Amino acid sequence: MEYFSTRGQDEKVSAAEAIIRGLAPDGGLYVPDHFPRITESDIDRMRSLDYRGRAEIIMRLFLDDFSAGEIESLCGHAYSSNFDCPDIAPTRFVDENTAYLELWHGPTSAFKDMALQMLPRLLTASLKKRGVSLGVCILVATSGDTGKAALEGFADVPGTRIMVFYPRDGVSDVQRLQMVTQRGENVGVCAVEGNFDDAQTGVKAIFSDRALAGRLREKGWFLSSANSINWGRLLPQIAYYFSCYCDMMNAGVISAGGEMNFCVPTGNFGNILAGWIAKRMGLPVKRFICASNENNVLTDFINTGVYDKRRDFHLTSSPSMDILVSSNLERLLYFITKDAGKTAAWMRSLSGEGRYFVGNDVLREIQADFAAGYCSDAEVQAEIARVWSENGYLIDTHTAVASAVLGAYRKQSGDMIPAAVVSTASPYKFCASVLNALGETADAPGHELISRLESATGTAAPAPLAKLAGKPERFKDCIAPENMTSAVEKFLS
Ligand SMILES: *Cc1c(COP(=O)(O)O)cnc(C)c1O
């Protein structure tokens, strides 16, 4: 299978090359040249396998430059005792046709582990395959979840280093503690004065600094990114949609060939796009319901065909979805139109005028597969309280956005077929909001809120979060944005 850019098919590359490069040279995103097919009998075979086995089948189809043994080893490392649940991504039912697909049993308690526990080894295996002898240094600017998940994925992986910059004025106390206590000999963590944009702008400047790249190459390093535009982050996410479908069949909720819906809390459009690719491969999904918070640019897009980022930015209780430019949507537009010229023109229009309209034909195709809705922070609080009181099941703020949007979708459309809400974070990552939703106070440092939520609900926090309280803080530096480049050079010297 070959990969090319959403903005032009002149250059075709292997999976390994696409993963090493991340972004295509023309600024587009890498896409596979076709979608492999999965049949009803393939799914039937997957039903009896564990998560690793299911993931191997999917990964093999897209990574034909990797051997079966390599893929077995990649999945074996990515999904084992680093997860606190042997099922890896369990499907939990709250009634006969509603389930939550829990993607947060990895080391950082958010769904980004599903890809970032895989990416480092996928990347180092790709470098070896392509004969690249340089070490890779991952640079991340993070508003919270990505930085920690990338640190945990790359910690002590041979041939790699990772440096994470987080905004001093922009992450929760639990998120900060998770990062500054990170283990590993090859990791660096540094606060940056200012907000997320300041950190992000600094990292972008480092990536485009040719002179710096030259100096680092002489020392044996090249810089790469771990964000969700990399094909290597999207690919591992396709597997859990198949896995959930198998769980639904095994529970007797759907029979062979029967359809289900997925409702996905969405930010950068990576998670939900992986699901849509699964559908194109043959998974019987009727609709993907795209759930947003008050930053509802995708709700408007899916309902009208107009993507317009010129709007107020809201800080919400589901911060990992506070996004106005959903990068992975570019891949959907390419897949639907198969037209790199059109896709490139829309992206130019987005960065120039701040908006684009895809036209009614493309809109109709999108609406055949997607529905969309959004909800406010007040509705998020009410949904956490409702699910807890009716089902004794505790969800985080991001999952609550999707849970509320699924309820509204079902009411409006009457479409009551079996559905899974994709659950993207442990409620213990967002203790303050969850405690407030349950009518408890949340006026204490992060690690105290964790034990408060445990005693209020009689549930247990994931072990890595519960253990944060006693850990030493390894990384104390806080620098001005203009000093980020020299911090990277020092880190790699
Ligand atoms: C990153 C994240 C999301 C958004 O996922 P996308 O792939 O960017 O759409 C949702 N919930 C949580 C908890 C996240 O960390």
Key traits:
five-stranded parallel sheet, six-stranded mixed sheet, 16% strand, binds pyridoxal-5'-phosphate, Rossmann fold, alpha/beta, 16 strands, 493 residues, 22 helices, 46% helix
Write the layout of secondary structure elements.
Elements: E1 3-5, E2 8-13, H1 15-21, E3 30-32, H2 40-47, H3 51-62, H4 68-78, E4 91-95, E5 98-102, H5 113-116, H6 119-129, E6 135-141, H7 145-154, E7 160-167, H8 173-180, E8 187-192, H9 196-207, H10 210-218, E9 221-224, H11 231-250, E10 260-265, H12 270-281, E11 285-292, H13 297-304, E12 306-308, H14 329-337, H15 340-352, E13 355-357, H16 360-369, E14 370-374, H17 377-391, H18 397-413, E15 419-423, H19 431-437, H20 446-457, H21 463-466, E16 478-479, H22 484-491
Parallel strand pairs: 5-15, 6-7, 6-9, 7-8, 8-16, 10-11, 10-15, 11-14
Antiparallel strand pairs: 1-2, 1-3, 4-5, 12-13
The structure holds pyridoxal-5'-phosphate (PLP).
Pyridoxal-5'-phosphate binds at residues 110-112, 145, 228, 265-271, 320-321, 398, 424-425.
